[in-house]
Amino acid sequence: MPEPTRKLAAIVFTDIVGFTKLTAEDQSKASSLLKTQRELFQPLVAQFNGSWIKEMGDGLILTFDTVTDAVNCCIKLQDASKQIDDLDLRIGIHQGEILIEENDIIGDDVNIAARIEPFAAPGGIAISNKVNDALIREADFTTKYLGKPKLKGVGQEVKVYCITSHDLPETDLSKVSAKLEPEGFQWNVMNSLGVAASMIGLFMLINFMFLRIGFADEEEVPSVAILPLDNKGADDDEFYAYGISSDLISDVASAGLIRVASLNRIEELGDIPVNDMAKQLDVRYIAEGALWKRDSIFQLSMELYDTKSEKVVWSERWQKNWSDFPSIGDVLSENILKILKVDQRSDAQKIALNPDAYEFYLKGKHKYEKREYAEETEIARGLLKKAIELDENLIAAQHLLGSTYSGIGDWDKVFEIYSSALKRAEQLGDKMWIGRSIRKIGNSFYGKGDQDKALENWEKSLAIAEEIGDKSGMSGSLNNIGIVYQGQKDYDKSLEYHSRSLTINEELGDKSSIASNLGNIGQVHHQRGETEKAFDYLKRSLAIAEEIGDKTATSNMLFKLALIYKDKGNYDKALHYTIRALQNYGDLGYGGREFSAMEWIGWAYFTMGIYDQSIDYYEKRLSVDNESSNKEWIAFIYWKLGLSYFYAENYVKALENFEMSTQIALEATNEEMLHVKIYLALTKKQLGKEYDISEILSIDKIEEKVRNYYVDQFGLYKLLGDRVYLENAYNDIQGKADRMEDEFKQKYLNYQVQKQIIELWEKENA
Questions:
Q1: Burial class (CB in 10 A: 0-12, 13-18, 19+), 385
Q2: Which of 61, 140, 550, 609 has its CA 20 to 30 A from that of 29?
């Protein structure tokens, strides 16, 4: 009997409405209907590359490799069923991990798909939040949130939606027998608290209205979510509301002992009721407001809602002229911090900013943070540079400009920009921006591989954060320092700094940062060979990330768990976790992390000898990041792609990619990479072309210069015929295998290249 296998799949359950009644009335007709369903649906499922798992009475269980295939197929099934009398379907779709045993599938995620099917209207499709998340990218689809059911026999929290596009019927919850949790069901309508009051004051001049002052309990760390301002003006004015909201969140978060929800987390949650928002973000207070622009006049309203007392505790309205508009962020942060009794910074000079410069900055910020295409980054840079040109005191614009270059790894430019920001912050005496600038300079040194300089700057930024009471800044610097010591294999110091960062975040109650800290601590334990401790911390981290719905942290933990499974030799599970992480990275637009996941998946498939999949992922990797400024890294990917073609015995394509790798490497470093030289010559040899190995032979201690030990050493052996390289390759494979668990060790040794090396070595020594 073959061993059960696990995979990520879209799982579909269908049910014929009224089939039980039909069977009781006319058994022959019911039987004929099942035959018709089978004959009608099987070709459609095959068309979308689906698997017909089994029939359960009148119901079907189907699986698909992708959510898109599953949803599109189910739409076709519903369209087809309309042509058949009595073939009225409910369909439920979920995405998750399945365990395949012979001709059946089992697992928690299978149960979820079955449990959400009753939430579909007759002729409709119900989907889980995981499927809904995947459909958000598809402009053709619209969905409606139904609620949070308590699913029998399911440990996960699941949100249920129905698809309302493609002529599919909307679910009438009054006709659904399955029940939702009382607190979970909410119509997808934002709480309108305070809107009417805000409109009354639209054209009022400065007017203060304190409805009731309420403060956090003395022992309670203040916690707040500042929702994006509602733009009541023209659509083109959206950048004002977005930019002010983003900066306000940053300013309040830097004030000290206060926990502030990130803008990304708020936007991920979307339009949900205020109390649900607070619960998801684990905050007590919600700040929301609106912004109007009328010619050169800005009108603004904001209120602070206490979810504990369920009352608005503060509300204000302002009117600002264009010249005073850049000060609005300071006004808002000062008032929010005052109400929450959080000490405010007093070190910085209050500088009147150029309003035109401030507008360019807000436009650049909106363009960059909401970008969909690479070209929009260049547009954002132009706007930010214009802002800085008009007002050098706008340090926030310099920092954002630096971020546009750190995202592509241009660390020299990053250093230049943040050094300029630091100089200006020092002139203004603004310790917050001094500390932030020094921390970013540390990032640039780390990116360039100078860990000593990175450490020096992060320690300086930590000291400043401690001086001004910037808890968030302290936590970030401590975490970065911990990463440096981790890279230097000083694991005791690394754990010390990560633990200090964790303590601060626990004090703040910042679950997202806690999850990150636990993940880093888990990685350190992994590097120390303490696998069980590593798993414990990483799984705790993953649980918190999933609890708060933080997709970024969830994806990071999935990737870290994947790498541990890789080291254990469990490549199947490692790939499963990495593919899950990759899916989220792509959804979130985290290019760098997405590229890393793609690259590792490609290498994993190469290691396993599944070259078509390896080629696919490397080509995907290059297709999304072929214009990266890090040419050396792109050259490295082309080399890996060439390796996959080489061992797939497609030497023509291998040569094409090795030559491309060489060309790009020469542009980047003015020197060819040794491992590329080896395989370029070897491929030419296989094709019967002339090749030159004199440069390779002239290198002293060649085996110490190559990067991927057994692959490069085996290449040298095949090229030069010297058995010392075969021995090196054999020893490297055995060393890797010795660190693996026994149940995966033999599987690793039987992968194609590894097995070939072992057999050749044994033959040489027979």
A1: middle
A2: 61
